[in-house]
Design goal:
The complex is a heterodimer.
Chain A (H helix, E strand, L loop, with lengths): L1 E7 L5 E3 L19 H10 L8 E5 L3 E5 L3 E9 L3 E2 L2 E2 L4 E5 L4 E4 L4 E8 L36 E4 L21 E7 L8 H9 L2 E7 L3 E5 L13 E2 L4 E3 L7 E3 L6 E2 L3 E5 L1 H7 L7 E6 L2 H13 L4
Parallel strand pairs in A: 12-20
Antiparallel strand pairs in A: 1-4, 1-11, 2-3, 3-10, 4-9, 5-8, 5-10, 6-7, 6-9, 12-19, 13-14, 13-20, 14-17, 15-18, 16-17, 16-19
Chain B lengths: L3 E6 L2 E5 L9 H15 L3 E6 L3 E6 L6 H12 L13 E8 L7 H8 L3 H8 L4 E6 L6 E4 L14 E4 L3 E5 L2 E4 L4 E3 L2 E5 L20 E7 L1 H6 L12
Parallel strand pairs in B: 5-13
Antiparallel strand pairs in B: 1-2, 2-4, 3-4, 5-12, 6-7, 6-13, 7-10, 8-11, 9-10, 9-12
Helix pairs in contact in B: 1-2, 3-4
Classes of the chains: A alpha+beta, B alpha+beta.
């Protein structure tokens, strides 16, 4: 068994996997890595199941010390990582030796880094997943919903791996303009025409109020003209519009039901991209049809079929 | 019951069965859930019933939206409400109704123009269906309470509502399974664990169950494992 010890953390880094399913009717949220694409790549680099448990590292500020030799892989944001003070670029698998220090400083490009280990970091499955949901006291290393703490031990398999090379074309450019693809839902027809025009033609800014439950966008006020709604289930990526007219994209740790009107939902690919945006980032929205979105999703998933 | 299917995400459909909140919806929604589980099998990822709807999350790697819609129609053809015998469990939830753990009890009595004893009697006087779970794991939205004891949510939610707190918001009632912020009017406290990750099925309440509240005293509350610590004054 290999181990990493947590020596320093901002308190945000946490264990995540593909999420918790089959329990949403009990009020249990989905959880799971916000940038599921980077999480899949991190696991793929080591030949892991794509949903295996990884460490989601928002913003850096994390220092880990190896207690044994082993392999790891890093994908997602460039957090200025170093291995014993030597720069360590993301999108690769790498060997780590006993006593080496793995440090994540601060975001250079993107926001969330994903660290994978052979077979996934080990933790008790809680309701079928290791995904940490702090608000629900579920998942994580101890199963009680805690984020990583100083002194925690991250255990993983020592077995040797045949690390894979990242296809260069698949590495996303987090500095490129962000266009989020929105599948319009039935309630979108209850918004004013001017609001729908503004939605797709104006620039939006990611607000400071952005966490694993949801991310708020600021821009022109959108006006819902329909009747008040009865609370109903909320899908991942739903774009809801509270009375102040500023949309909120609901993410993995969202509440399972809600009663605000919704414009539709972002595609899974756009959710992964949004997870790498920092507050203040300019965004645009573009409409996409269901068949286009499914085709794009299946093409994305084909990346990991070997 | 008139089924309308809406596309709400790449892999989710909203099945709209009714237009208004009504206890009579539940046997239909539960029957629909059972049929959908049967038809979709492993392609069904999650199914979230609420007051008038079912949110169906399917595996979009295996199914196109058109296929999923066709399966929904197949599953729900000639739907019949669940017979009484097949409906969810009936629970009796003990509650210690007392101002120290139910700080809004006397205000509810004032609003209703009755005694706190009468508020308690009214709250315990009917079976409430569990319409849906949400807000937190195991948090069941139940109702509808007698109109005289209905009350709007607090203008400013409390920072911390203790575990087990029993509340009213409009004509709905619920028990907080975990300590959390909350804006419901609090009447008392239930000593039972509503959500336990070690328990088979995890949640005591499930959509479609029925609940009757039963008043108990402090001694019984403590005997059943309840924490009688009084509410802290709000900051």
């Amino acid at each position: 068994m290999s181990r990493l010890r947590v020596e320093q953390t901002l308190g945000f880094a946490q264990l995540q996997d593909g999420g918790r399913f089959g329990v949403r009717h009990l009020g249990v949220t989905q959880g799971g890595a916000l940038d599921w694409v980077a999480q899949h790549w991190a696991n793929w680099l080591l030949g892991n199941p794509l949903d295996a448990g990884v460490i989601e590292i928002p913003l850096g500020g994390l220092t880990l010390r190896a207690e044994a030799d082993g392999w790891l892989a890093l994908a997602g944001a460039d957090l200025g990582a170093t291995l014993d003070q030597q720069p360590l670029a993301p999108w690769q698998a790498f060997a780590i030796r006993r006593d080496q220090e793995l440090r994540f400083a601060s975001p250079q490009s993107g926001v969330r880094g994903y660290l994978a280990a052979p077979g996934g970091f080990q933790a008790p499955a809680v309701l079928g997943a290791v995904a940490t949901v702090i608000r629900e006291s579920l998942g994580g290393l101890q199963g009680d919903g805690s984020a990583l703490k100083v002194g925690d031990q991250l255990s993983y398999d020592t077995r040797s791996v045949s690390p894979r090379q990242m296809p260069a074309a698949a590495i996303p450019d987090y500095t490129a303009e962000v266009r989020l693809q929105l599948l319009l839902g039935a309630q979108s027809s209850q918004f004013s025409g001017a609001s729908l025009f503004a939605l797709f033609n104006q620039r939006w800014t990611l607000d400071q109020r952005a966490d694993r439950m949801g991310m708020r966008l600021t821009g022109p006020a959108l006006r819902y003209q329909g009747a008040p709604l009865i609370s109903e289930g909320i899908p991942l990526g739903a774009v809801q519009v509270p009375p102040d007219g500023q949309p909120i994209v609901l993410l993995n740790d969202r509440q399972t039901i809600g009663g605000y009107p919704r414009l539709g939902a972002l595609t899974p690919g756009s959710l992964a991209r949004l997870a790498q945006c920092a507050p203040g980032q300019a965004l645009r929205m573009q409409p996409v049809t269901q068949p286009q979105a499914r085709k794009a999703q299946l093409a994305l998933l084909a990346n990991w079929e070997s | 019951m008139k089924l309308r299917i809406e596309s709400v995400a790449l892999d989710s459909l909203m099945l709209r069965l009714f237009d208004a909140i009504d206890e009579a919806n539940m046997p239909w929604l539960m029957a629909a859930a059972e049929r959908l589980h049967g038809r979709f099998g492993a392609q069904l990822i999650d199914l979230v019933p609420s007051y008038t709807t079912l949110l169906l999350h399917y595996d979009c790697r295996q199914l196109s939206e058109a296929q999923a819609c066709a399966w929904v129609h197949e599953a729900l053809t000639d739907l019949q409400p669940q017979p009484m015998a097949a409906q969810g469990q009936r629970h009796e939830l003990p509650v210690w109704y007392h101002p120290s753990v139910g700080p809004d009890l006397s205000r509810l009595a004032q609003r209703a123009g009755c005694s706190t004893e009468q508020v308690i009697t009214r709250h315990c006087s009917r079976d409430y269906p569990v319409f849906t779970l949400g807000f937190a794991p195991g948090f069941g939205y139940m109702g509808l309470v007698d109109p005289s004891i209905a009350a709007p949510r607090l203008a400013t939610p409390r920072q911390r509502v203790p575990q087990g707190s029993v509340g009213i918001a409009e004509r709905q009632t619920a028990v907080y399974p975990l300590p959390s912020p909350g804006g419901w009017n609090l009447l008392g406290r239930c000593p039972l664990a509503l959500f336990d990750r070690e328990r088979e099925g995890y949640s005591l309440l499930k959509p479609g169950d029925r609940v009757r509240f039963v008043a108990i005293d402090r001694t019984e509350f403590v005997r059943l494992g309840g924490d009688p610590s009084p509410m802290e004054a709000d900051a």
